[in-house]
Design goal:
Layout: E1 2-7, E2 10-15, E3 19-23, E4 32-35, E5 38-42, E6 46-48, E7 57-67, E8 71-77, E9 82-88, E10 91-101
Antiparallel strand pairs: 1-2, 1-5, 3-10, 4-7, 5-6, 7-10, 8-9
Amino acid sequence: MYAIIATGGKQYKVAEGDIVRVEKLDVKDGDTISFDQVLAVNNGSLVVGQPTVAGATVSATVMTNGKARKIVVYKYKRKSGYHKKNGHRQQFTQIKIDKINA
């Protein structure tokens, strides 16, 4: 059984027991969170929502909040002496999928 959920402007295919990194959520470690934007559920037969599946939710436990590895953003224009180096670390929330209620 799996479900497709939407959170943080992205879509994730999840199954029970999966550990997923999603965009930062405003929750503490150990809290339980429920996703109600379930786009599709497959439990033998695929049910696709229009736009979401009515009455379907996915519950998960927050494992940790953190920052991803640093990426380097380097801007450069030749012959003009312009260069700019910048770094970015994206924040994330790591969750464990507990139950898919469909």
